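We both want to read discrete structure tokens more fluently, so let's practise on a single case. Would you write everything just below, so we can both look at the same thing?
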Amino acid sequence: MFRSLLRVLPLAACASIVLAPSAFAQAPADTLARIKESKSITLGVREASRPFSYLNEQKQPVGYSVDLCLAAVDEIKRSLKLPDLKVNYKVVSGAERIPKLEAGEIDLECGSTTNTKARQEKVAFSYTIFVAGIRVLVPKGTKVESVKDLDGLPVALSKGTTSEKLFTQLNANEVKMQLTTFNSNVDAYKALKEGKVRAFPQDDSLLMGLAAYDNALDQLNLSSVALSVEPYAIMLRKGDTALGAIVDRTLSRLYSGGEIQALYGKWFATDRLTIQMGRLTRDSFARPNKEAGVAMLLGYSI
């Protein structure tokens, strides 16, 4: 079902962190057992992946994905009979999230991570929690109706993302761009705003979150073409079946009971940001699944 396009509204329509303890050298095979023994869990969060996972003005982690992870934490408390389970947070970047999960520095990654076949080789994913799509953010007046329109343009990429992977492939085979990779979405977005690049491809929901927070919705446009389907999920260690079962059970309950509707509205229907629920996201709530993302261009991967 992920071969249909995600429908998103156009731009114009629209307690301090407790750092986790030092990483242990090798993650235990059964994270749930370790959580029960240590009476603590560490959630990986993002600094500026609005509205999914970001630090608010008080430097506290908040967002749609964070709320879903905290719902899973409540279920862990009940399952393990640990009402006082301590929740630690650790900020991770796009490039760091998988290595830090594998190293045991975080137990769940609560961000904006796409479930892909390539990533499934290293980690595991929960049921899909949202479906985005790669589009291109450009200054108003710049038209991008196909990747050919990017020929010769300076383009910003964010390190460790599916958009970096896809556009590196496209640059080698389809169209010659001037690619510059930045450490984060914030840095890539800043380069676009400062005129150092002319385009920034990334998941449309994240691009809208950046522009809405920056009050730049009237200065920037999203491309009309979507280049991928990106099913977001909570990420956990590969083979961590007991913990994964609790996370999936929590999501299934939220979906079937209708609580997800209010939670979606809380983060995606605000005064600053409006992203209507796309059909693929709605279908994922009706029929929980773990389908991997796909590139819309034949022969390319994300």
Q: What stands out?
A: The chain has a mean pLDDT of 91. The CA atoms of residues 32 and 295 lie 34 Å apart. DSSP finds ten helices and 14 strands in the chain. The first helix runs from residue 31 to 38.
